[in-house]
Amino acid sequence: MRPGTRSPYERALGSRVTQLHPVLQSYFAAIPADSVGIGEGVFERFGTERWWLRPLLAWLARRHVIVPGMHRQVPFRIENRTVAGHQTAARTLELESGTWTMVDAVSLSESGRVVDVLGEPALVEADFDVAAVDGGLSLKSRAVAVRLGPVRLPVPMVIRPVISLSERFDAEVALQKVSLTVDVPALGRVYEYHGSFTYRIEEEA
Q: Model pTM?
């Protein structure tokens, strides 16, 4: 497959992509033109117990990054597309307060790391190391920055959050499992989500 037709994840992993479970190989591959990848499932937990973060998270929610509060058993739908070499995702959650969507776009940096830009308009940027572990995909952030229009502000290491994400396929229940945690120095866990879903690729209507 030509480099231009591979997803950022495939390019970051290189030959290691074959170490992923076949379901995950499909999930992290480039999506054909005029098609969309659709996942449907439930987040068992989504959010944070840190009530004092609510004002900041309420603002981030309006930018489609993360939401305040801890939510449980949340139905969700994800739509993935490959656009100009970027892997885009829109995760729509059915919260108690109504429907909310988190958006992001993934690309590959010159250093070979996956770069995830969250928000609409773009607000948070995180660079990740990528690894294949026991058939699953593991991401761990190495740098985080805030985008304010044309200005990019790196987050200093002393307060930089560490974002860890794991995706795996559970063959016993035929579900894809996703888990994300966000930890901040001296504060500990400030955000997380854990869920499971099924996934398919369909032609766009």
A: 0.93
